[in-house]
Specification:
Layout (H helix, E strand, L loop, with lengths): L4 E3 L2 E4 L6 E6 L9 H12 L2 E6 L2 H9 L8 H16 L7 E6 L1 H17 L3 E5 L24 E6 L7 H4 L8 E6 L16 H25 L1
Helix pairs in contact: 1-6, 3-4
């Protein structure tokens, strides 16, 4: 694994023997180099996934000024995704290109992945802690677009995540192209309770292994075409 490096606004971590590239966006409240994002990128590199992290405009402005700003409106977030992936997809690289992110970043990716798959050949979607609904408001589901998702997708979700627990989400009718990998006792940041006998580091590593398996399955499918 290479050391993280900033290149044209992207925080890159290259796997030693890469099998895929993953463009990765942050959640609503933490930047691209939060402890969670750093740990996830390192774990993914260990599974052959090179990551390219970026920040939405509001988070980049926070970093520049040190002030607090709320997330951008959805259209601007989606345009940021389109612009980043179009720039990256134009580079010469035969590895499968995946997109995804933490919480809000993953949800925004899920809203454009079919579009970017058709336009640019994006191979898959990976979401880490998907916000299925606001905490405590299980009736406000954010899953309508997931029922007809056409691109292969993987959601890594803690079973205790207040944005969507296993009990609430598992029965939903979602696209057959979408798989959810449940991380036992994990919360929204994949932190388990101490009594569980496991750790956040272990669950992040499990999420990375599942992502590696997902990427390999996509590479096999592409190779069979």
């Amino acid at each position: 694994m290479s050391r993280p490096r900033l290149d044209d606004g992207l925080l890159r971590v290259d796997a030693a023997a890469p099998i895929a590239r993953l463009v990765l966006a942050h959640g609503a409240g933490a930047p691209m180099d939060s402890d969670f994002m750093n740990a996830l990128a390192a774990a993914l590199a260990g599974q052959g996934i090179s990551t390219l992290r970026f920040e939405f405009p509001y988070m980049a402005e926070r970093r520049r000024t040190g002030g607090k700003r709320p997330p951008d409106r959805e259209p601007r977030l989606l345009d940021a995704w389109r612009d980043r992936v179009r720039a990256i997809a134009g580079s010469e690289n035969s590895l499968p290109l995946l997109i995804g992110g933490k919480s809000m970043g993953g949800r925004m990716a899920s809203l454009v992945v079919d579009e970017l798959a058709a336009e640019l050949g994006v191979a898959g979607l990976c979401c880490y802690g998907y916000p299925f609904h606001p905490p405590g408001k299980v009736e406000r589901l954010r899953t309508a677009h997931l029922t007809g998702l056409r691109t292969p997708a993987l959601i890594l979700q803690g079973t205790r995540d207040p944005f969507g627990t296993a009990e609430r989400i598992a029965p939903l009718a979602l696209s057959p192209r979408l798989r959810i990998h449940w991380l036992v006792d994990g919360d929204h940041d994949f932190k388990p309770r101490r009594a569980s006998g496991t750790s956040q580091t272990y669950l992040i590593a499990e999420a990375a292994r599942a992502t590696g398996d997902f990427a390999l399955s996509l590479a096999d499918s592409i190779g069979a075409l």
